[in-house]
Amino acid sequence: MASSSKTYIVEHLDPELGAWSELEYLAIARESQDAGAKFCLSSLPPSFKVPDALNEIPAFKAETRGVEELYAADKSRVCLLDPAAASDLSPEDGDKFDAFLFGGILGDDPPRDRTSELRKKGFDGRRLGPVQMTTDTAVRVTRLVVQGKTPLKEISYLDHPELKFNEHESTEMPFRYVKGKDGEPIMPEDSPKRCMNLFFHITMDGVPPLFEIYPPLINTACPWATTIEDLRDLYKCPSTGAVTTRTSLIAGFDHDPARHQYAFFNSTLTSPVQNASLNSLGYSPLTLETYLGFIRTISADLPARSSKGFIVSVTGTPEDIAASYKLIASTAQDVRFPLAMEINLSCPNIPNRPPPAYSEQELSIYLTHLRQAVAQVTNRIPVGLKTPPYTYATQYQSLISALEAAVPDDDGGCGGNERGACPISFITATNTLGSCLLLSPPPPSSPDSHPASPVLPGSGLGGMAGAPLHPLSLGNVYTIRRMLDEKGDKKLGRHVRVVGVGGVSDAAGYKRMRAAGADVVGLATALGLRGLGVFRDIEGGLEEEEGGSSGW
Ligand SMILES: Cc1cc2nc3c(=O)[nH]c(=O)nc-3n(C[C@H](O)[C@H](O)[C@H](O)COP(=O)(O)O)c2cc1C
Where is this region: Disordered (predicted)? Predict the structure, then answer.
């Protein structure tokens, strides 16, 4: 039986405290005090300065120790509020747990996603529902459930309410709030007055929506994710945490089967066991609207909400990308799972159109259009960039410089160091390596001068993937993660996740990608070669190494 006194713990790993977080923490501390509960900020860096107003509230406690240490004797007393948990928080959880832990997302070395780290450490998890909440709302809802014994579903919420600053200015808040007795959303005191430009502050001090995927294994954009049947089967596969669609354009791609093809081969060119691919494909012949229709249909067939969602891969002009973002964000409001958008700027096979992600200038144009689109929607969705394999340092630097240039320099009227962050939530590295050639073996006893006979049509050149790409993709993931970590600030570094893809086909490849710094691992060629079984094999291989328990 749990103690009747409850403690709400927010892990705060950042040496700084933004103005918005301070307001949230004050609200949590005051409400905890009124409810006879405690509020603890844990894992505080030694340099962290606790505001006086917070220290004065008796229910509040500042802790430099992490929750693992605080509850070393009995982890089972702690409930982790986790969007990827298998069950929702219920009033009975008040009888089971003493402490409720909110993982937080920012922090220095090492955490980038504290919730997933804590999850791995075996804390029991519970969900608070599908709509993103501010930290004080999450604690409020938890308290209503575990102390007030109100089931989650019976709490009155206001989703994305409009907040009026004055007669002329208002903004729609991209979060779920608890509805107060006056019918208004409950928010920290003073919040509308403190900051007129709330958008970047409220999204976790400027961080765009987090890209959360569990298990951290996915398919990446490829021809085996083209039809609704492909997508349904991928969605049903229990060993993956999300499904990526094949890249589509708003108007569809003029696919010509005579020109756009792929072939499998063995990277040693001597073994019959295929482990690599070469393709001259462009994009899906189906339009983005068609994919969004598929996604709606798959959603409608679901019995309940699910945390497993879709990554919608798109490409086109910068204007197309802005329009795609709005379409996907709007669809995200109608479906029962999360959606993210991945911008494919890295296909090597489009004549006269070099992959834009090789050029800082082009990348910047895309990011500018994206930012404008993001500012026009009420529900932000995570956006990723699919990058080509980079082969030398200045190419990486171009990517990082373009991302940095996309950080808004507006301080939102609040002064201080709280500014917006780069609008990119993840980077998927890498796409295929262009300009590769696969030749058919010469007929036996042909002369040395036998002309080359490419396997693919036209020039025969195409994008290579699979085993021979693996070391290059590992190098890209490693370098991009390191460069982002070196930025190490709220604007760019920590919130940007990396999806590692290139030549993964087994548990060992998965582990190498993770070791190189991938938060999520993707694959395409191995799916084409082995079907969905490849995901189950990877999960099985990881379990085997862990002696039967989950190896993610
Ligand atoms: C036949 C084929 C078609 C692909 N089509 C796309 C695509 O439409 N969009 C995209 O972003 N990546 C595409 N890719 C790249 C993959 O998503 C992946 O980034 C790359 O193949 C490396 O992973 P792999 O070694 O596991 O195949 C394609 C790859 C293959 C093999």
Answer: 440-459
What 3-state DSSP class applies to 476? helix
The SS3 assignment for 70 reads helix
281 lines ligand 1 (CB under 6 A): yes
Range among 70-74, 376-380, 508-512 rated most confident: 508-512
pLDDT tens track for 156-183: 999 888 776 555 555 567 678 999 998 9
DSSP annotation string for 271-314: -SS--EEEE-----SSBHHHHHHHHHHHHHT-SS--S-EEEEEE
Domain boundary among 202, 227, 253: 202
> Quick one: pLDDT at residue 523?
98
Q: How far is CA 304 from CA 299, 337, 367, 424, in A?
A: 9, 9, 35, 29
In a domain, 252, yes or no: yes
| 3 state SS of 16 | coil
- Number of independent structural domains in the chain: 2
Q: Confirm if 423 and 367 have CB atoms less than 8 A apart.
A: yes
Residue 395 located in a structural domain: yes
Question: Is the reported ipTM for this assembly greater than 0.95?
Answer: yes
Distance CA(484)–CA(419), nearest Å, equals 18
CB 79 within 8 A of CB 124: yes
CA distance 446 to 203: 66
Q: Are residues 175 and 226 in the same domain?
A: no
The answer to whether the beta carbons of residues 278 and 455 sit under 8 Å apart is yes
Q: Is 116 in the pocket of ligand 1 (CB under 6 A)?
A: no
Query: What is the dihedral sign for C-alpha 13, 15, 20, 26?
Result: positive
Instruction: Give the range of the structural domain holding residue 323, as residue numbers without chain letter.
Output: 217-545
Q: Would the CB of 275 count as within 6 Å of ligand 1?
A: no
Q: What is the structure's pLDDT at 258?
A: 97
Q: Which two tokens stand for residue 113?
A: 């996603």
CA 93 to chain centre: 28
- Return d(Cα 474, Cα 465) in angstroms, integer: 13
Q: Is residue 413 pLDDT above 70, yes or no?
A: no
Q: Taking a C-beta distance cutoff of 8 angstroms, is the pair 528, 275 a contact?
A: no
Which residue, by CA, sits nearest to atom 4 of ligand 1? Answer: 222
First and final CA of the chain: distance in angstroms? 31
CB of 476 sitting under 6 A from ligand 1: no
Instruction: Determine the distance separating the centroid of ligand 1 and the alpha carbon of 142, expressed in angstroms.
Output: 42
Query: Same domain, yes or no, for 82 and 107?
Result: yes
Cα–Cα dist 345/403, whole Å = 14
Of 404, 408, 366, 358, the closest CA to residue 383 belongs to 366
For residues 296-327, one letter each, b for 16 or more C-beta atoms within 10 angstroms of the residue's C-beta and e for the rest, the string is eebbeeeeeeebbbbbbbbbbebebbbbbbeb
